[in-house]
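Look at one such:
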Amino acid sequence: MRELWDFRELVMTLAERDLRVRYKQAVLGIAWAVLTPLAMMIVFTVVFTQVGHINAHTNGAPYALFAYLGLLAWTFFASAVTTGGMSLVGNLGLLNKLYCPREVFPIAAMLDAAADALIGTVVLLVLFPITGYAPKPEAYFVPLLLIPLVAFTLGVTMAVSSIVVFMRDLRLLLPLVIQLGLFVTPVIYSSATFIKSKSLLIVYSFLNPLAPVLDGLRRTVLQGLAPSWGPLAAGTVASFLTLYVGFVLFKRLETGIADVA
C-alpha cells in the first residue's frame, strides 16, 4: 500500500492519458460515457413497460430511473473489468521500461471507469426532474454501498488483467462473459423478482456481490428504505474475499509477466 501511494501520481497520469486517448478524436467526445447506459435504459424501458408491461418491483418509481441506476453501476463494473483486464497487455512497453507496482495499470483503468460513472451520475440527476420523481433522503447510504462495489470490481479486474497476459484467448471470451453477466445480475430487474426466500437471497448475494449493491441503490435512492443488511453483509464479505484472491493471484503471476510480455 505504501508503494502504491508513492506511485499515486503515475496512476493519475495513466488514467488521464487513457481518457484523453479514448475521447480525443471522437466526434461526441466525452458524451460517449453516458450514451451506452442511456441507450440501454431507453431500450429496456420500452421493452419492459410498453411491450412486456412489467413493473419489475419498482414500488412506484419510474422504470427509467430503476433501470438507469442499475445500468450506471453495472457499466462501471463492466468497463473497469473490460479495459482493466487489458491494461497490462496494452502497456507492454511501459512494463519493460518503467519500474512501478504493476497494480497501477488496472487501478488506473478502474479510475477511468469511475470518471465515466461520475459523468453518468449527472445524467441521473437530470432524469429525476424529467420523470417528476425525487431521490429519497436515504440516499446517504450510497457511499456505504460503493465500498463492496469498488472492492469487488478491483478484485476481478486485477485477476483478469494478470490472467490475460498468460491466456490471450480470454480477451475474446471476456466480452461474452460480461454480456452474460448483465442478465444474471439484477441490472434490469430486482432480485426479488425471482428470489423470494431470504436465505436464498443471502446465498445469491454472496455468489454475486453486485446484486445487493444494485438492490441497495434502488432501495435507498428510489424507495427510501435502508439496504437489506443480510444480503449486503454477504456481498461485502464476498467482495473483499474477491479482492484478496485477486490481489494474491496478481502478485503470484506478476513475476512472470515481463517474461511472457
